[in-house]
Amino acid sequence: MENYVNHSPIEAQYPDLPGKTMVVTGAAQGMGRLFASQLASRGVNVVITDLSDAVLDTAAEINQELSEMVLQTENGRVIGVVADVTKKQDHEKTLSAAIEEFGGLHGWINNAGVFPEAASLDIPESQFDLAFDVNTKGTLFGSQVAAGYMKDHGGGAIVNMASVAALRIRRGRGSYNTAKAGTLQLSYSLAVELGDFNVRVNAVAPGFIDTAMTQWVHEREGALDHALGNVPLHRIGAPVEVFAAVLFLLSDSARYITGSCISVDGGSRHV
């Protein structure tokens, strides 16, 4: 597997980011955790959310890891908030924590997501509802709360996690494909409407990335070879490579970019 993934660090630094405050939803583990850790290592204060108390432990672990870095920089701090992204009031609780702890909000990453599987003719209503509640409605609520603050405080940046599945159909993922397509179109709609307030909204569309959500590709016979055959770069992506796109979109280097989607998929959307 390591032959197919490049986990080497992303060295990009943006001098406008240290001291800012950002939220990452769905960050107790996986890609969200990495986003939080990488942002904090660059001087950003981060509020992370997840459904369980594990998010509190994750925040403490990241802070400890940063304090032990040999080449310490001016790291930010991370705090955790237990929150359900399908409940708007939980996003409001998250915003309140950011303001109380760090004095404001500059960026928000709607990262929380679910990855259900079923053939289209077999999709149960409960799965379809869950896919939209978490992936799409959760993104809407997070964006509404974030933008509600940002529009009165000079603007900000929102990054939504779409997927290559929003651009290219994957068999057996009808609920996911549809919900992520909704997330992408929602991002475009938000960008158009929030531009009046200097709030930028963009999306990132990962392809095959080395996370728990894609472990199935290693477990099914022939799935890895098939997957790599549909990726022009012929390898699986690393979470840090997704972070590089997110980091850019949050920074002032992307200050004239809104309503865009960066595909981090090795080119697979074209195959």
UniProtKB/TrEMBL annotation:
Pfam families, per database record: adh_short_C2
Q: Which family does it belong to?
A: Belongs to the short-chain dehydrogenases/reductases (SDR) family.
Q: Which InterPro entries match?
A: NAD(P)-bd_dom_sf (IPR036291), Sc_DH/Rdtase_CS (IPR020904), SDR_fam (IPR002347)
| Entry's Gene Ontology molecular function annotations | oxidoreductase activity
Lineage, top-rank taxon, reads Bacteria
The record lists the lineage as: Bacteria, Bacillati, Actinomycetota, Actinomycetes, Mycobacteriales
State the signal peptide span.
none
Q: What is this protein called?
A: Oxidoreductase
Q: Which NCBIfam families match?
A: PRK07231.1
Q: Which UniProt keywords apply?
A: Oxidoreductase
Q: Does the keyword Lyase apply?
A: no
State the PROSITE patterns in the record.
ADH_SHORT
Residues spanning the membrane: none
The answer to keyword Chloroplast applying to this record is no
